[in-house]
Protein 1
Amino acid sequence: PLVPHSEPRNMTTFTSLIQTPALSYQEIMMPTSCAMMIGFASGATTSGKLAGYQFMVENLHRLPRTRANWFFFQKTKNYKVILGGFKGGLKTGGKLGAWTAGFCTLKELFTLLPAIERRKSIAGALAGLNMALGASLFYQLRPTLSPRRLLLGTLMGLCAGLAEDMKAHLEEEDPPL
C-alpha cells in the first residue's frame, strides 16, 4: 500500500510501507571482481602457454634458417602468445566471475529471508548447494558425480559463511586491553 508523503516543497509523493532491504553491493562486487582478476591471470597464463605450443607445432615444418627470419618467427610467436593469453584470460575470468557473482548473489538473497537473516553460514551452505546443483546441470555431469559435487558445494559454502559469521562476531566484541 502506498501512503502519501509530503516533501518540503509541498509536493506529494508516495512511499511504500513495505521496506525491502537492498542487496549489499560490496558483498557481491568485491568477491566477483577479485575472482575475475584471478581468473584472468590464470587463464592468460595457461592459454598463453598453449598458444605458444600450438604455434610451434604448426610451424615446426618450416623453421627459419637466417637470423632475420628467426627474429620474425619469434616476434610472430610472441604476438600469438599475447593474443591467445588475452582471449583465454577474458574467457576464464568471465566464467569464474559469473559463477562467483551467482554464489554471492544467492548468499545475499538467502540472508534476506527472516529465518536465516543473521546466519551467513546457513545462507552460504544453501547458496553453495544451489550453485553446485546449477553447475551439475549446466555441465551435464554424470549422476554418479553429482552427490559428491553437491556435498562439496555445500561444504565450501558453509565454510565461506562460517568465515563471515566469525568476522562479524569478532567485530561485535570489545577488544581486550
Note: The radius of gyration is 25 Å.
Protein 2
Amino acid sequence: MSEDGDICPICKSSRYLNPDMKFLVNPQCYHKMCESCVDRLFAYGPVTCPHNGCEKILRKNKFKTQIFEDVAVEKEVDVRQRVMSVMNKREDEFDTLNDYNAYLEKIEDSIFTLLNGTADEKDALTKEIEAYEKEHKAEIIANNKLRDEEDKYEQQKEDWMKEQRKANYLMAVEEQRAAQEDKEAAKRELVHQLATSNKDASSIEQNVQKTALKRSSARTVNFQPMPTSRYFEKVKKESSKPETPFTPFNGDRQIPALFEVQDHYDDKVIEPLAHDIQHQAGGFTLKAAYARILQQAFFGLGVDVQTELLAEENGNSNGTAVPVKTEEDPVKLEEPSIQVKVESTV
C-alpha cells in the first residue's frame, strides 16, 4: 500500500503513528476512512459522506473492511455478489444450454451496467432487479440455500479427499519401508544359508527368491489404497439427448462386431513387440493390438451417413449404426460376426 493509502483522508491520522488503524469503506460510495472516524461521525445515525463533493447518505452498519487495495476491484466484487445473489437460477432450470448461457450473459451485462453505465441506466436496472427480487423471492431463497448446501458438500468432499490422499501416502510409505526391510532380510537369509547349508548356491538363491516373492505378494494384497472419490460421486441428471460429437463411421457402436480376433496371426512386425520389455511395461498385448487393427479396418462398413442423419432428424436414431442393405453390399450385418483370419503381415 502506498504512503497516501496509510493516511486517513478525513482525520489525517497515519498508520505510522497508529499501526492498529483500520480503514473501512461503504458500498454506497466506496470512499475510505478510518474506523475512528466512522465511530465518531456516524454514532448518532445516517450522515452525508464527509468526502468533498460526495452527497451520499451513509449508515454506520453498512461500513465494511476493505479487502482489495484497488477500490475498483472491491466495488466490482460487491456488485457481482449482489447481482448473483438475486439472479441465481441454475442450469437445470433451463431447457437448453444456449438458454442458460444467454442467462449468464445477461448477468454479466447487468454487472457491467451497474459498474460503468450512466446514472439513469443504473437506476433503471436497480429498480428492475429489485422488482425481480420481490416477485421471485421464494425461488431466490431456495436457490441460495441449495447453493450453500452444494458449497458445504464440496468443502466436505475436498476435506475428505485430502484425508484419503494423506492416508494413502502414509500407506505407500509404510509399504515401501516394509519392502526395503524384506529385501534386506532376504539378503541376510541368503548369506546365512550360503554359509551354513550344504546345497548348491543356485538352489539356495532360488529358494530365497521364492520366499521373498511370497512375502511381496502378500504385502501387495494387504496394501489397498482407499478410494478418493467413490463415496462423493454426484448423480448427474441425464439429458434427453446426449450432446456427443457426430462420427461418420459409427464403428465404435456396431454391435455385434463384424470380425472376431483370432488367438494367433503370422505377423512378423507386431509379434516381436510382445517380447519387448518397454512395450510390456505400457500394457501392450498382441490381442489388443490386433483388435485395434481389425476395428480400424472394419470401421464404418455398412453405414450410410445420409441415411443415419435422416433417421436422426426424424427422431428414430438410437445412437447405433444405420446400415444400408443393397444387392451389391458384400457385408451381411444379419450375421452375428464374421470370422477374419489374417495370414499376411498386418
Note: Residues 52 and 76 are 23 Å apart (CA to CA).
Protein 3
Amino acid sequence: MTPMILQNEAGLTSASQPESTARAYWICQALGWGGYVAILLLMSLIYNDGKGSLAHRLLITAIILSVAVMIGLILTHSWRKFIQRRGWVARTGGLPVLRLMAGILVLTVIQMSVVTLAYVVVYSLTMHDVIDSFHGGMPWVFVGWLGIYTVWTVIYVATVSRRHTRRMEIEKLQLELHVKDAELRALQAQVNPHFFFNSLNSIRALIYQDAQAAAEVIDRLASMMRYSLQSGRIDTVPLAQELKAVHDYLAIEKIRFEDRLLLSESVDPQLEGMALPPMILQTLVENAVKYGVELSMEPCELRISAQRHGEQMQLSVSNQGRLREVAGSTKVGVRNASKRLALLFGANAGVDLFERDGWVTARLSLPCQLLAA
C-alpha cells in the first residue's frame, strides 16, 4: 500500500532504470496491502462472535478482503496516475490540499460502496442477522478506509515531493556546472590570443635579422599552438606538460632578450603529475617577462618555483622589479588566473600578488591532485 515513487513521478521525464523502479513500486504496494490483509485475518482469528466455525469465518473474511484489496489496488494506482497527469506535486504554487482531500473522500466512498456490497452479498448467502451488526459498525469502517487512503496519499505526495526537490537541486547544480564550464572556456579563450600576439611580436622582430632564429621561434610557437589547442578542450593538465609549454615560451623570449633574460627554476619532481588549469602558469610567466624583463635595461632574473606545502601545491613566478610599476597592468592576468582556479577548485585555491625585497611574485596555491593517466 505504501508507494515507491519513480524518478519521473513528479511530472519529470527520466529514463534511468524504469523497470526496477516500477517493480519496486509494485513490491511496496503488495507489501502494504499484504500487511492490511494479515492484520484483518489476525483480528478475525482473535475475535470470536460465536457465529460459525473458525474455518467459516476465515473463508468469509478472505473473500471480502480479496475484494477490498483488489479495489484498493485499482483505486490507489488510478489515484497515483491522476496525480501525475495533473502535475499537482510538481506545480510551483504548492499542493492543492483541498483537491487532494476531495479525492481522498471520493476514493473512500467508492471503496466503502464496493466493500459494503461484498459484505451484503457474502453474508446474505451465509448468515441472516450479521448485516444489522455490520450496519452499526459502518461509521468505523468508513473512518478506517478514510485513514488508509489519507495515509497512502500523504506518503505518496511526501515521497514524490522529496524526489522532485532532489531532482530540481540536481538540475540546478548541473546548470551551475554548465555556466561555470562556459565561463572557464571563455577565460581560456582570453589567454590564447594574448599569448600568440606576444609571440608574433617576437617573430616580427627577428624575421629580418636572423632567419635561423626566426625559424626556431616558429617551431617553438607551433609546439605551443598545439598545446594551446589541446588544452582548450580540457580543464586540467599535468604540471610537467605546463612546464614544457613555459620552457617553449621562454626559449622564444630568450632569443628576443638574449642575456637580459635570466632564468632559475626550482620544481619538486614529485609534483610533475599534479593537475592545474592549462596555460595558467604560462600566463603568469608571460606577465613577468613583459613587466619585468621587458621594462628593465639590465639583466632581469625570472624565478619559477613549484613546491608542496601540506596538501597544497604552490607555484610561484617572480621577477626583479617593483609592484607599483605593474600595478595597473598585471591585474587582468592575475584576475583571470584567480577566476579559473575558483571555478575548478573553489575556495581551496587562489592567487597572491606581492612585492618583497625587490621581487614581484605571483603565487598560485591549489590542492595537490594527481591527474589520472
Note: The longest helix spans residues 130-206.
